[in-house]
Structures
1.
Amino acid sequence: MAKSSSVFMCSNCGAPYARWQGKCNECDSWNTLEEQKEIISGKRGSGTVREPLLLKSLNRDNFLRIKTGSEETDRVLGGGIVPGSLILIGGDPGIGKSTLVLQTASNLSKNNRKILYVSGEESPSQIKIRSDRLKANEENIYVLGETEINDILKTTFDFKPDVLIVDSIQTVYASELSSAPGNVSQISYITGKILEFCKKTNIASIIIGHVTKEGAIAGPRVLEHLVDVVLYLEGDRYGHFRVLRGVKNRFGSTNESGIFEMVELGLVEVKNPSLALLSERSFSAGSVVFPAMEGTRPMLVEVQALTSITPFGYPARKTSGFDANRLQLLSTVLTKRSPINLSNQDVYVNIIGGLNLKEPALDLPIILSIASSFKNTMIDKNTVALGEIGLSGEIRSVNNIDKRLKEAEKLGFKKAIVGGKPKITDCKLQIESPKTIAEALKIAF
C-alpha cells in the first residue's frame, strides 16, 4: 500500500530537501522551500523484462507528422506535430497562447482530426465565445471542463482524440497529492503522467504553461526537461506582432521561429516580415534599418533612438526590445571612442514592432541611431547596418551576412555598413567595412 512522507521543495527551481532551510542551495532563493506530501509506492518496476536491441539493426522511422495548417507553426515544430509527442507552449498573460492553440485546433479540425480541448481556466461557454470571435471550425473540436488529471486521462483514453490540449497545466491537479494545484510537486507529477500517457497511446498533447515575472515557465525546470517540445510566444502584449520561438525540440531544429500579427480574427501569419515591419517606417534622424535573424530567416527591423539633454544629474538609459545594460555599455563606448559626448544626454532606444532582439549584430545600428539623433542628421534611408562593437571601439563581423544582405537587397536597399571583412557573393549592395566606430560615423554621415 502506498505511503506518504513529507519533502520540502523549492517553489522556484523544484530542488527537493529532507528538511526545511532558509535558502535553496540550487538557485540561491530565500524562503522558497515548501512542504509537500510525497507518495511512496511499495511496488518497484513493472515485472516485464525486455531484450536490448542492437542499434545497427534498427530502422529509422520517418515520423508521419500532423500538419497544423499554419506554415509558421509547422516551421517552428520542424514540419508538424509528431504523434505521441508532448508540446509545451509558454508566454506572458494575454499574449495569445489560447488563441494560437484554438486556431491550431480549428485548422486540425478542417483536416478531419479529432481534438479534445481540456480547460481548467475557462468554462466551455467561454471557449465557445472565443471560437465564434475567431470564426473557428468547430466540427471536430470537443471541450471538457475538468481539472483532475486521472479523470482527464480516463476520458481521453476512452475518447481517443488525435490531439489533446490542456489549458493550462497550472490548473490541473492529482487527487493523490495533498498540495494545491499549480504547486511544484503537482506540476511535475502531472506532466510526467501526461508524458507517459502520450507515449503509450501515441496521442499528441499540447499543454499551455504560465510564465513567471522573470519570463520563465512557472513551475520547476524539470517541466521543460520532461516535454518533447518547448515553444515560447513572445512580443509586446499591446503590439501587433508575435514571435513563436522554439526553445527545445526533440524532433527538429530550435533555430526556427514563426512570425504572426494579432488582428481581430486572431493570429495571422506574416509571410513577409521585413515588408510588414518597414511599412510605416519613419524617415528621420535617429532611424536605422537592421537586418535581423529570427531563427534561419532574415528580416529587416527599424531601430530608433532619441537623445536629449538630461535635466537630472544622472542621464537616463531606457530601451524597448533591447537589453538596457547593453545600451549603457554602448553609450559609454560611443562617448569614449568618438567625438560624441553622451555624459549629459538621456538616451532612449526602441525596436519597432514590439520585437525583443538580443543578438550582438544589433550593436552597430544602435550606435549609428544614437549618433544620428545626437547630430540631428538623417542617415541615408537606403542604408542598412550590422556589426558587433568591442570595448575598444572596434567593429567585428557577425554570422549569416549573405542571408541578411540578400534580404536587404530584395527590398531595394543600396548600401550596407558591416563589421569585419565579410566574404559575400552575388550581392549588388555597396558594402562598407569600417574597422572602428569613428570610421563608421564618417561613412554614415
2.
Amino acid sequence: MHALPRPLRSYICDEKLLPIADKVALDERLSFEDGLLLYATKDLNAVGALAHHVRLAKHGLKTYFVASRRLSYTNICYTHCQFCAFQAKPGDPRAYVLSAADIIKDLEKPESTGVRELHMVAGHYPKLKIEYFEDLFRKLKARFPDMHLKVFTMVEMDYYARVSGISMEEFLDRCVAAGLESCPGGGAEIFDEGIREQICIGKKDANVWLKNAELCHAKGIPTNCTMLYGHIENPEHKVDHLLRLRDLQDRSLAHGKSAFLAYIPLAYQNENNELSRTHVIHETSGDGDLREIAVARLLLDNVPHIKAYWVMISAGLAQVGLSYGADDLDGTIIEEEIAHNAGAQTPQGLTKAELARLIRAAGFEPLERDNLYNTYEAEALAIP
C-alpha cells in the first residue's frame, strides 16, 4: 500500500495539530474539537498531508470516475430554498415537466452512449405522484436495462411520498420494485436548524434528511451524502454536520444492509439566487475548497469515498483535491443544470478520456466505476 515518505509529525508546522497527527497515525477517531482545529489552523498543507495519508491507506493511488448523465424531470418547485437558482414556479416560461418519453428520447442522444449511471434530482411539484415515478422507472429500465437509476434527494422523496398520500416505506418499496437502485446525497445542505431557517426554509427540519437516509440504508438502498458550504455557515456548523453523518453511518454499518458510499462537499454558487442578493457572500476560495475535502476525509473515517466535485470547484482544483483526501472525481456529468444555473463556469460535461488524463496528470491511477464502485480497470487504462 502507498504511504507518505515521512512520519506524519514531520509535515506539521502548527504544533496544535501534533495530537491530531498522532491520532491519524494510529487510525483513531477524531473529535468535534479536532474538527474545529482542522478548520481554524493556517497550516493547510499539514491538514492536506494528514488527509492524504488516510486516502492512501484506504485507496492507494486509485482514483474513480463514472460515466454519468444528469437529468431533472422537472424544475417546478414549491419548496423555497434561498440558495437555489434552478427552481421555477408554474407559469414561469422556464418551467418544465418531462414525460418518460421525453427522458428516453434525451437518453437516446449520442452523447449518452456508454452512460452507466442516470442521476436524477428535481423540483418538488405536487402534481407528480408515485404513479409517475413507477411508470418512469419501469420504462427507463425496459429501454436501458444496464443503466443504474440513482434518483431522489432525501427531502425530495419525503415530499413525493407526502403528496402521494403514502408512507415513506411504501414509496421506497414501490420505487425499488419499479427500478430505483440508489439515491444521491443532495439536499442535506447544513443540518444546523438556525442556518436552515435562513437558507432553505421549506426543508428546515434536518431530521427529515437523516431519517430518510437511514431508512434507505435499512432497506438496502445505498446513498451518498453531502454538505453545502461557503455561504453563511461557521466551522462549528460544518463539524456538527459531518459528525451527524458519521454517527448515522455508524448505525447503518452496524445493521449491515447498506450505507453511504461517498461524501461530496458542495461549494455554494453565488449567482442568481436570493441568498446572494441578501448577504455578501464571496465565491469559495481554492484553499477553502481543499480544506473541505481534507477535513471530510479526516472526520468521516467510516465513509469509503470522498469526491472532488469538479463541476463546482473546477477540474484543475479537483485534481489538487486528489492529494487532499479525495479519491473520486465523480464523473462525466453530462448536462448538469443546478450548479450551472447558480453560476458554475465549468464545462457541461467531461469525457472519460479527459477525466482519465486529469487523474494521470495528477499522479494517480484512473479507474472507471459504476455507481456501486465496481471497477473497469482495463477499459479505463486503455483511454489515451
